Amino acid sequence: MKLFQTAIAAALLGATALAAPAHADVKIGLIGGVTGPIAAMAPPMIASAQLAIDQVNANGGVLDGQKLIGVVGDSACNPQNGTDAATKAVNIEGVVAIVGPHCSGAVLAVANSVTVPAGIAIITPSGTSPEITSLDDKDTVFRTVPSDDYQGRALARTLLDRGTKKVAVAYLNNDYGKGLAEAFKSEFEAKGGEIAGYAAHEGEKASYRSNLAELASGGADTLVILDYGDGSGLTLLRQALENGFFENFVGADGMKSDATFKELGAENLTTFVASSPVGEKSEALEMFNKAFSEAGGDPSAIFVTTSYDAAFLMALAVEKAGGDKTKVAAAMREISSGSGETILPGEWAKAKELIAAGKAIDYKGAAGDHNFDEKGDVPGAYALFKVGANGFEMIGEMK
Amino acid sequence: MEWIGFANYAVFMAIFICIYALLSLGLNIQWGFTGLFNAGIAGFFAVGAYTSAVLTSPAADGRLGGFDLPFWVGWIGAMVAAALIAWPIGKICLRFRSDYLAIATIGVAEIIRLVIKSEDWLTNSARGITDIPRPLGDLSYTMSQLAYLGIVMAILLVAYLMVERQIASPWGRMMRAIRDNEDAARAMGKDVPYRRLEAFIFGSALMGLGGALFAHFNRSITPEAIDPMVATFLVWIMLILGGSGNNRGAILGVAVVWIIWSLSEIVTDQFPHEYAVKAKYLRIFLIGLMLQLVLRFRPEGLLPEASGERKPVGKPSD
Amino acid sequence: MGALEIINFYLVPGLVVGSIYALGAVGITLVFAILRYAHLAHGDLATLGAFLGLGLVTALGISPYLALTAVMALTAVVAVGIDRVFYDYLRERPKIVTVMASLGIALMVRAIVQMVWGVDSQTYTRGIVRPENWFGIRVRDRELITIVAMIVLVVALQLFLQRSKWGKAMRAMSDNPDLALLSGVDNGKVVTITWVIVGGLCAAAGLFLGLNFELKAMMGWSMLLPMFAAAILGGVGRVEGAVLGGLIVGVAEEMSTLFLPTEYKAATAFAILLLMLLVRPTGLLRGKVL
Amino acid sequence: MKPLLQMTDLHGGYGDANILHGVNLHVAPAEIVVIVGPNGAGKSTAMKAIFGLLKIRGGSVTVGGVDITGWEPNRIVEAGVCYVPQVDNVFREMTVHENLEMGAFLRSGDLSAAYDRVYGLFPDLKERRKALAGNLSGGQRQMVAMGRALMLEPKILLLDEPTAGLSPKYMEQIFQISRDVRDTGVAILLVEQHAKQALAFADRGYVLASGCNRHEGTGADLLADRDVADMFLGG
C-alpha cells in the first residue's frame, strides 16, 4: 500500500512540477481535434489561428508589447481529452482565453466542466451544434461559425430560389451532419420542396454505393451532401459521380474543401456547388485569403476563416480587457458589436491604437461580421461557391 | 508561481483517475479475477452514462426522459441498466474463450454506440445530452472540483473495499480457481457459467457507474465520449500496466497512464509551434512505445497479483 | 428494383469491398491459427502498405498495380521487423499480452503514417473513373483487378500451404504446435514466414482499398472489425473460409441498406458475427475454436 | 553394449513440485524397453523429461554419449530421437501422407525409400494415404503417429502409451509392428499401462513407483517377480 501511495503522490507531483510556469507572455489556448476523427481538418484550422497570432505579434503584440502565444492542445474530438487539454491550458499554461475546441461534443464538455465554472471565455470556430446555443454559459461561450440551423435553412431557401424543388439528402451521422440536415429538411419542406431521400451514414466506410442507390431511388436528380469534403463526403461524392447516381451536387461549408477538386478533378465538378459563411464585406475575405496564402496556407480549407476570425477576435478581446481573463468575455461583445470603427482581418495595429484611445471598434471577419446575439451565436451570411479553374469561386450570396 | 493552477489541474486529474479507476476495477473483476476478456467496456460505460443522463436531466423535447431525478437515483439507475444489459450479453458470450468473447463484446459495444448515435427518441442521437446536474456544481470552480473529487473518491473507496472483500471471500477464491483451471473447478461441482456471469455483471455495473460519474462531471454526454479508443482500449492498457488481478494495481495503472498521457503532452509541447500538430502524433507514438516497453520489461504489471494466488492465464503454449 | 440494379449497386460494390476484407481476413486467420492471438495492428499495417504504395507511386510515377509487389515486400519486411522487435519476446507470455502489444503497434504505425503522409484524404490517381458497361453490368477495371488479384493471391497462398514444405509446416503448426515442434519444425522460421505472408496480404488489402476508394490514416483501423468478423465467420484457420467470410460481410453490408436505416450499415458485420458465434462458433467451414 | 540412451538420476516436474525423484534408465540399440508402473508413478513424465518438456532440476540425459539435457525439441529430433505423444499425436487436419511428410521434415533428398518402409510396416495407411488423419480410427491414428516418427529414421523411438484405448486386436498389431521396427535396428522405449502384455513382449522393463526406480530386469524376470505382481499386476 505504501508503494502505491508514494507512487501516486510522486507521479502527481512530477506531472505538475515538470510543467514550466507561465511567464510574461500572454497565452491563449488553441484547442482542436488534432488527432481523432477530424484530424484532417484540424491542421489548417490551427495554422490559420496561428496566422492571426503571428499578425498580432508582428504588429506590436498585445498590451505593452507582450507576445501572444497560442498553446496547442489536442481534444481528439472527445470529451475525455478535451477537458484534459482545456484544464491543462487553463490551469497549467495559464491561458487567458481559449480558441476552440473544434468539435461540439468537446465544446459542451469543456464549457460545462472547465471554462464556464472557471470563468474563461471560449470561442469555437467549428462547433456547430444547436446544443451549444442553449448552454448555460454565463456569457462566456462564443462561436464564429453559425449554428447548423442557420446554414441548413439558408441552403434550403437558396436551392428553392435556384429552381431545385426535389432533392435527396445524405448526411454524416454526427452533430454537424445531423444538425444541418434537420434544419435543411424542415425549411425545404416548409417552403414547398420535396425531399426524395433522406439518410444518414457513418463516416470511414469504404463503400457508399448502396446508400446512394437507395437515395437515388426516390427520383431526385440533386444530391445534398452534408458531410466533410476531405472525409466520407469525398468518398460519397466520388461514388455518386462515378456511378452517375445524381446530376447535381450541393454541399455545405464542410464540403467546400480543396480535396474535392484536387482528388476528383475540377472538370468533373461542374455541377457541384457548396455554401460557406462569408463576411458581408467580401473585402475581409480577400484580405484573409491573401494573407493565408502568403503564409503557405490553403484559404479554402474547411473552417479556416472561422478559425482565423476566432483567434483574431480573441486577441482583440484580450487587448480590450487589458489582459484580465475575467473581462475577456465582456470585451468580446464590445469589439464586435456592429458599431464603431471597422477592423478588417490583419488590421491589428489600427485596432490596438483605437482600443488604447478608448474608441469603439467592430471586427468584420473573413467568415462574417460576427455580431454575436445574446447566446454568443452569429447569424452568418453565406455565399454559394462553385469549382472553377483556380479553386472555389463565389457565384452568389445567399439569403 | 501559479501553484493554485497546478493544484487545480491535479484535482482534475484525480477526478479523472477516480472515474477511470472504477472502469479498471470493473475490468479487473472480469479479467483479473475471472479471466473474461471484455473488450466492450465502452458499451457499458455508455449505457451507464446515458441512463443517468436521461434520469437526471431536465425534461427536453424529442427524446426519452428528462426525468429530473436526483443524481444518486441516476447513478443507481446507471448500475442497474449496465447490469441488465450485461446479463443477456454474458448469457450469450461467456460460452466463448477469451479472444472470441473479446470480439463479441467489441461488436456489442459498437452496436450500442451506433444506437446511441442514431436514435433521436432515446439519446438525442449525435447531439448528446446536456444539462446533466453535477452534485455541488454550483460552488466556485475550485470548490466544486474539490467537492466532486470528494464524491468520486468516496465512491471509489467503497467500490474498492467491496471488491477487495469479495475477492478475499470464498467467492473470490472460487473465481480464481475457475480462472486458473476451469475443468478442475467444474469437476469440483462449481456452477462455472453462473459464477462467470456473476462476475461479468458485477464488473459491468461498475463500468456503468463510471460512465454516469463521467457524464455528471462534464454535465454532458455525447457519442464522442464512447469512442472505443478512449473508453475501452485505454482501460485495458491501464489494467495491464497496473497489474491485473490486483485492485491496487488496477487503480495505480489508471493514475500512471493519465499522468504519462499528460506529461507526454508537456514534453511534446516543447517543440516549436510549426510542429505542434505533428507533436500530437508523436505523442500517440510514444504512448504506443511505452506500452511495448512495459509489456516487455514488466509484463505482470507494476503491482502484480500477490504470488501464490495466481498462475499465468492460459498455458504458454496455447 | 431490377436484378441489374441489385447487381450494379449492391452486389458488385459488395464483392469489391468483400475482396478487400477477404485479403485482410486471410491474414487475421493465419495469425489466429498459427500464432494464436488476435492481431489488432492488422488494419493499420494495411494503412501503412497503402501509404507506402502512395510513396512509390508519387516518387517513381509508376502505376499502383506496378507498385503492388514492391509494397507487399516492403510491408512484409516491416511486419517481420515488428514481430522481431516487439512480439517475439512475448511468445511465452499469456496471449493477452501480445494482443495488448499489437494494440500499441497499431497506435505507433498509425502515428507514423500521420506524421509522414499527413491526415488528408489522398488518391493514387486524380479524377474519377466511370464504369464500363458489360451488357448492363457496370464494373470498372480496377474493380475487376481487385477481385482477380484477391483470387490470385489466395490461390497462390493455398498452393503454398498445400504443396510446399514450409507451407505444410505452417499448417502443422496451426494444427498441432507441440507435435510440429516434435517433428523438428523450427518455430521461429514458421513465425517469420507467417509474418512475411501476413504483411504482404495486409499491404495488398491496403493498396486495393486505396485504389478503389481513398487513402486515409484511419482507413485500416475502421476496416479491422469487419475483417475480424469475416475471419471468424469463415472459421478460424480456414483460408478459404476467410475469403468466403470477407465476401459475405462485404455483400451483406451493402445489402443491409435495403432493410436497415443506412446509419446501421456499419453494424451489419457485427450482427452477422454475433449471430454466427451464437449458432455455430466454429464458423462456416468448421475452423478452430480457440 | 554401450547404451544408446542413458538417463541418470533425473529429478524434475511441472511447476514447483518434483514428480521425478532420481530416475535411472538406459536403452541399448535395437532393444525394446518398457516402463510400467501404477498410476502417478511418473512413467510418462520420465519420457517427457527426455524431450525437455518439463523442468529438469537434476540429472542428465545422454544420447549416444552426447548430453542432450535441456535441448530444444527440434535439436533432439535431429539427434535421432523421436517421440510419439499419447494424445494429440497426429495432425488431424492433414492427410495421412502429409503427416508422414511432416515426420520427414528434417530430411531432404529422395524419401521414397522411407515412405516405402513405413507403408510397408503399415499397409492400412497406404490405402488411406489421402484421408485426413482426424477422420481415422484410434488404432489407425496411432499407426500414423508411429509412421510419422519413423519417417525420420530415428535411432530410438519413444512411445507414450501407444495402446491406450485401443482394442486388443489393435494392441497386438501395435506390439507386432514395434517388433518389426526393432528388427530394422531402431530402439524403442515405451510407456505402457497394460503391464502384463507389455512386459511379455519387451526385451527389458523398468518398474517405476512414486517417481523412483523400483525394479528392473528382462520382461520375463519382472513378470515372475512376486513383488511386481503384488504391486499392480493383480494376476
From TrEMBL, chain A:
Top-level lineage group: Bacteria
Receptor ligand binding region domain: residues covered: 48-387
Primary localisation category: membrane
Record bears the keyword Nucleotide-binding: no
Pfam families (UniProt xref): ANF_receptor
CDD domains for this protein: PBP1_ABC_ligand_binding-like
Signal sequence residues: 1-24
Subcellular locations according to the entry: Membrane
GO terms for biological process, alphabetical: amino acid transport
Gene3D superfamilies: 3.40.50.2300
Keywords: Amino-acid transport, Membrane, Signal, Transmembrane, Transmembrane helix, Transport
Keyword NADP among record annotations: no
PANTHER family reported in the protein's UniProt record: LEUCINE-SPECIFIC-BINDING PROTEIN, PERIPLASMIC BINDING PROTEIN OF ABC TRANSPORTER FOR NATURAL AMINO ACIDS
Official protein name in the record: ABC transporter substrate-binding protein
From TrEMBL, chain B:
Keyword Calcium: no
Membrane topology: Multi-pass membrane protein
Entry-linked Pfam families: BPD_transp_2
One GO cellular component, as annotated: plasma membrane
GO molecular function, one term: branched-chain amino acid transmembrane transporter activity
Compartment annotation: Cell membrane
Membrane-crossing segments per the record: 6-23, 35-57, 69-87, 99-116, 146-163, 199-219, 225-242, 249-268
Location, primary (coarse class): membrane
Key words of the record: Cell membrane, Membrane, Transmembrane, Transmembrane helix
Superkingdom classification of source: Bacteria
Name of the featured protein: Branched-chain amino acid ABC transporter permease
From TrEMBL, chain C:
GO function term, MF aspect, one: L-phenylalanine transmembrane transporter activity
Broad class of the protein's primary localization: membrane
Domain of life where this protein originates: Bacteria
GO BP: any one term: L-alanine transport
CDD domains linked: TM_PBP1_LivH_like (cd06582)
PANTHER family to which the protein is assigned, alphabetical: BRANCHED-CHAIN AMINO ACID TRANSPORT SYSTEM PERMEASE PROTEIN LIVH, HIGH-AFFINITY BRANCHED-CHAIN AMINO ACID TRANSPORT SYSTEM PERMEASE PROTEIN LIVH
Record protein name field: Branched-chain amino acid ABC transporter permease
Species this protein is from: Stappia taiwanensis
Automatic annotation (TrEMBL), chain D:
InterPro entries: AAA+_ATPase, ABC_transporter-like_ATP-bd, ABC_transporter-like_CS, BCAA_Transport_ATP-bd_LivF, P-loop_NTPase
A GO term, aspect molecular function: ATP hydrolysis activity
Pfam families: ABC_tran
SMART domains according to UniProt: AAA (SM00382)
Domain (ABC transporter) ranges: 5-235
This protein's UniProt keywords: Amino-acid transport, ATP-binding, Nucleotide-binding, Transport
GO process terms (BP): L-amino acid transport
PROSITE patterns: ABC_TRANSPORTER_1, ABC_TRANSPORTER_2
Family membership noted in the UniProt record: Belongs to the ABC transporter superfamily.
The protein's name: ABC transporter ATP-binding protein
Organism: Stappia taiwanensis
